[in-house]
UniProtKB/TrEMBL annotation:
GO terms for cellular component: cytoplasm
Organism encoding this protein: Corythaeola cristata (Great blue turaco)
Gene that encodes the chain: Mroh1_0
Name of this protein: MROH1 protein
Top-level taxonomy: Eukaryota, Metazoa, Chordata, Craniata, Vertebrata
Residue intervals of the Maestro/Maestro-like HEAT-repeats domain: 63-310
Amino acid sequence: MCAASVGSAMARHAGPRLPLIVKNLIPTLSSVFDSQRITTTAFFAELLSSNVVNDLILLETVMDTMTARQKDSCLLVRMLALRGLGNIASGAPDKVRKHGATLLASMVNGMDDKDDPHNLVALEAMSSLSKLLDHVEERDIQSMLLHIAIRIRPFFDSEQPDLRRSSIVLFGNLTRFSHGHCEVFLEQILNGLVTLLLHLQDPKPEVVRACKFALRMCGPSMGCEGLREMFLNHLREERSLHYGEFMNNVCKHLMQSFPEMLNRLILTNLFYFKSSWADIRAAAPMFIGFLVLHVDEDHCQQVDLDQLISGE
């Protein structure tokens, strides 16, 4: 039985004995052996998903040990520590508000992990942060909002579908806190808009669902009622999408509300002409075609025809 399963079972059946077990296990987190630190961290991470640690006044102790593991030399320990901190959202959601600033700082540090070649720590940080956002104080997230939005943007195009999905879901969740930074966060939405719309053609259904969610969340912040309604009505998770018709109408609203963005939108689409995903490669020129179709004459001069024809 793995450490996480043991932790889950003990949380259910061995509550009164947990304080002594936790006390005896804490020293192993300083073990020279990676395997011991991994096992104990996995055990503690699973305990944090149960309210028993809160009932037994163990939450702060276990949370502090997880926070300290962020500097561990073992990548798996760092990843499991973030998972544990994210599990507080289900084990003791009321405590997330109290410790919000500390938990958010841990997630941001995880996304900025410099020794994470496959972005496993970053993935865990993004997934855990999405869980915590339902319970944090708005003031705690505001100061980190733009940093997080900018940091996760490159993951939208990751070759790893889990990273694409988690980063896009997190971006959608962040928009709930954008009203205090409307203009600045709108810029982040506009920066990611082409990518989110193109990844509606992503080969992975879970990424498509994430894009639908993120665009529905972004709609109210864009200041365009037509786009808000389109995203809300056409991007419901269970609804199939006629992509060409949808994009035609999206581009009409974009050129009515943001005509000055034409060249910027075209340049971003040109990048996807070389996408490794065939459906996205096909969607990008269609996107440009609909933009040009709906732009008014006053803004046509934005289009660099030589660049457009060369596709570069």
